[in-house]
Design goal:
6% of the residues are buried. The chain is an alpha+beta fold and 111 residues long. The chain is built from three helices and five strands, in the order H-H-E-E-E-E-E-H. Strand 3 and strand 4 (92-96) form a beta hairpin.
Length: 111
């Protein structure tokens, strides 16, 4: 019985040092997770918010579904955008601003 107790004491003798050492791999995983996933995602969200905040009437945009159009007006406290569809100038659609994927460059608008 005393040999079991002695083995138990030898295994737990590391104390707080071994506990902190065992947390080191978890901390490294968290740091990697932040730099590989959370950091770039935050940067992308910031870029997307800047794009949506910078929209103005006349900008040509692409929706998440691939539809392209020109912003004609903002509706309901800028939550919605009215688009004139590029291929059909008479067609106008109301879409959520969050459905806009990207703004096309100025040279694409003149084609």
């Amino acid at each position: 019985m005393s040999s079991t107790f002695t083995l138990f004491l030898l295994q737990t003798q590391g104390g707080a040092g071994s506990f902190l050492f065992s947390l080191l791999p978890m901390a490294l995983i968290f740091v990697l997770f932040y730099f590989l996933i959370l950091g770039p995602q935050r940067k992308r969200q910031k870029q997307m918010q800047e794009l949506l905040d910078g929209l103005k009437v006349g900008d040509q945009v692409v929706l998440n579904g691939g539809l392209t159009g020109v912003v004609t007006q903002f509706l309901e406290d800028k939550r919605y955008v009215q688009l004139r569809i590029c291929e059909s100038p008479a067609v106008r659609v109301k879409v959520l601003r969050s459905a806009i994927a990207e703004r096309l460059p100025e040279s694409a608008e003149k084609k």
